[in-house]
Every structure is written in C-alpha cells, then in structure tokens.
Amino acid sequence: MNRGVIVVLSDRPDRSKPLVDAINAVAECRVVGTDETWDRIGPFGGVVADITLSRPEAKSCLRRLASRPGRQRAPLIYLTRSESHAAFTEARNLGATICLSAHVEPRMVVGSLVREVWPEKSVADLVVTREIKRAGATMTNLLKSAETGPVDMKAVDGGIDPVLDAIHDGGLSRWLDEVWAYDDVTFQHCLLVSGTVAAFALSLGLSQADRQLLTRAALVHDVGKSRIPHAILNKPGRLDDDERAVMQTHAPIGHEILSASGGCDPITLAVTRHHHEMIDGSGYPDGLSAAAIADPVRLLTICDIYAALIERRPYKKPMPTRDALSILAAMDGKLEGGLVQAFGRAVESAP
Ligand SMILES: [Fe+2]
Ligand SMILES: [Fe+2]
User: Where is the HD-GYP domain (predicted)?
Assistant: First the structure.
C-alpha cells in the first residue's frame, strides 16, 4: 500500500458501501473490520471509521490504531451514529482528528478527507488522477499485448468511462496537466488524444454512446506504434525519409492488429487505419480524399494533430493552445475547416 490508500474501518461493510464507492473515486480504498490489528497494514493516507463505539471491540481497535507508530501522520475521521456531545468527546479521546455525523452525504466525508490528507489538492484533482491511472492501466496493457499478439477490446472498454468522467468532472486542462507528467511518448500521446476527443465530443453535444465510441477509437488509434522500433518512435527531432516510411506503417499495422484480435467496431478500425489521411488526398496509408474519409475519422485526425503539437517531451515544452490552433487553421484543405473551427471553440472554452 502507498500513502494514498485510505482505510475504511467498518463493522457493517454493506452499510459502508456508498462511502467506500465515494472514496474509491478519489483514492485507493481498503475496507477492514474491528478485528484489524494494524501491524499488517502498510503505509496509508488516512482512516475513516464507520463503526459503533458502544461495542468494546470497536474501542479496542481504535486504541490499537492510536498506538501504531506514525499514526499521527494519517488523520482519523470518525463517523458517529449518535450525535450526542458525549459520543463526539469519546471519539476524540480515542484519537479522532474529525468527527462527523454518519448521516452526512458520503461526498461530504470525502471533502473532509481530502482537506486532511491532501490539503494542496481538490477533489476534482484527485478524481482526474485516479481516472488517468485507470485509463493509463488500460493503455499500458493494450500496448504491451499488441507488441506480440492480439489485444482484448473488452479490456480497452474499461478505459473509456474513466476518460469521459475525468473530462466531464475535472475539465480538459486538468487532464492535460496530469497526462503531461508521463514520459512514455505513445502512452502520453494516446491519453492526450483521448482526453481531447472526449472534450470535443462533449462540446459538440454528442450522445454518451457516440462519446464512448470516439474515446475507444482514440485510446487504440496508435496501437500499431507498439511494433515500431523504439529508436524511431522516441527519436528526438525529425525523422529521415526511411524512418518516416517505417513510422507510417503504424496505421495499417494497427488496423491489422485490431482486425486479427476481433471484437472491434468498424469506426475504431477505420480511425486506426485512416487517422493520417487528409481531405486533399495527401495523407497515408491509402491516399483517401474527401468523401472517402468518414466523419469520426476527420474528427479524430484533428484531435490527433492537436495532441501531437501540444505533447510534452523532455526536450520540448507543450505548444500553447493558440499556436497549435493556428497550425490547425493553416491546414485548410487538408482538414475539414468547419470542424477545425468547432474544435478551436471547444478547446478554448473547455474548463
Ligand atoms: Fe498515428
Ligand atoms: Fe496519434
């Protein structure tokens, strides 16, 4: 366990479930009973005690917690079902940092927990961090299995809602700030594209089903890069002609991986193969033009180029939004102008 883990001490896990779900949205959560000895638990960030103090085992469990070395660094929030002054006093005497009524909304408990454990962070910051970890785990597994074999599209789906929820609840700029911290170039890029697509789709008012479809396509669109040599993938600066030819194979390779894996929808397949096609026919791998490029592909292509422009590398700061949007606007004829304008509005107005 790391310091971010929150322990919920509960004598009724069924009753504590809404609280555990709310905590899980911001941090890893572990539920333990009043028989917990505390010596077998590693570091943790805080404890929320949802127990009835009138039971002797509950008191002795809190006493064992209070005597644990380093306990003072992890706050204890006690939820009391009796709101008498005596109950609050007893909880404080047993080491509670804060006492709250057990009848308050779980989100209120989470708010107090966040203020105590991560005073420099907001609930939204933590939600985004958590969602990125979930989406990131999906990306890591996807890229790893694609190196040598098929991918599991059902597992990919586990990464979709974390992206959509984080963009909806936390906003695009928070997502970008967190994702920029990751060094792996393909990992960072795919999460930048996914967050950008989710924000664009949200601003276009697309349905939840369409947002999920586009986010799935964004997560996997560069899966073919898992088979491109690292020397080319991670080369700082421009690729030469031979290297560029190898790099460009990632689109048909990605399409092959997904086709062979099965369970992939036609839009994701089309996006994976065609996200580098341009409306004027100058793109790759098939030199498609205008009507042959489906709308979702055009939309993904815009987000893909934007994400590549604003990526953060050890030698390169993210390009400012306005400069990246100017470059997209100058690609008139290659990208769909109306969609680029809508994209600019979406990015500039995104929280
Ligand atoms: Fe690509
Ligand atoms: Fe890409």
Answer: 164-351
Q: Tens of pLDDT along 149-170? A: 999 999 999 999 999 999 998 8
Cis peptide before 285 (omega within 30 of 0): yes
pLDDT value of position 3: 58
299 alpha carbon to ligand 2 midpoint, in Å? 12
Nearest to 45 by CA among 65, 77, 73: 73
Closest residue by Cα to residue 96 from 54, 50, 30: 50
- Please tell me the distance between residue 125's alpha carbon and the centre of ligand 2 in angstroms: 26
The CATH classification number of 123-349 equals 1.10.3210.10
DSSP E strand boundaries for the chain: 6-10, 29-32, 46-50, 76-80, 98-101
Domain ranges of the chain: 6-117, 123-349
Question: What's the CA-to-centroid distance between 304 and ligand 2, angstroms?
Answer: 5
On the CB side of 337, CA atoms within 13 Å amount to 4
Determine contact, residues 149/273, Cβ cutoff 8 Å.
no
Identify the nearest ligand to the CA of 250 by its number. 1
| Non-local CB neighbours of 223 within 8 Å, separated by 6+ positions | 142, 143, 146, 151, 254, 257, 258, 272
Select 6-117's CATH number: 3.40.50.2300, 3.40.50.12280, 2.60.40.1470, 3.40.50.720: 3.40.50.2300
Q: Measure 272 CA to ligand 2 centroid, in angstroms.
A: 9
Which of 115, 93, 112, 114 lies closest to 104, judged by CA?
112
Q: Looking at 134-229, which runs of residues are DSSP E strands?
A: none
Tell me which residue of 51, 55, 58 sits closest to 77, measured CA to CA.
51
- Report CA(194)–ligand 2 centroid distance (Å): 10
Ligand nearest to the CA of 186: 2
CA of 308 to the centre of ligand 1 (A): 9
Which pLDDT band holds residue 72 (cuts at 50, 70, 90)?
low
